[in-house]
Amino acid sequence: YQRRVRGKTMRRGLFMTMLQQKANQLPVWTGSKSEQPPPLTGTVAADGSYICNPGEDVAALCDGVEDDNWILAEVYLHNNNTNKYQVKDIDIEEDERGDGAGNHTLSRRRVIPLPLRKLNPSTHGHLLFQPGHKVLALYPQTTCFYPATIHQPPKGEEDEYQVMFFDNYYAEGYAPPLPVPQRYVLEFRDKKKK
Q: Of 127, 133, 148, 179, which residue is least crowded by CB atoms under 10 Å?
């Protein structure tokens, strides 16, 4: 992600729009109903030996980031000797990175690869997260993942999940449903299991 275009800082609204567009442009996996989708397709997680490549987007559990939340980050290195990732918070501009700001070294347990393809609801809807399923979802117009529950899965290839984020402000404990692209809805992982 580049937050600078021709030497000028990109406005936050434009940056958030670009993140949304990137998620919406994710290719749809077009296998037949009888085929099992490959890893990193919709809800199909990467296998345990998967190593993210530099430039891949991930959810990263970083210390000292808004109460140790999961953030949207980009991998820039995997150290095979330590089996740790070096990631950078995509919401920190390059010229703000003095003294390593926004850079984090994390164990593989604290990094979740994002899907590289969307599931087609008409052929593999049974593999989508279903209503009531607890997930981590990117809150709209932010770069943080928060616990949520699925209200409604996508019905078509271009549709998004409708998710309800946990919010004690509401009597039900959830905010009203918000749309979140498939790319940014992940299996829930408890922060305490670092």
A: 179
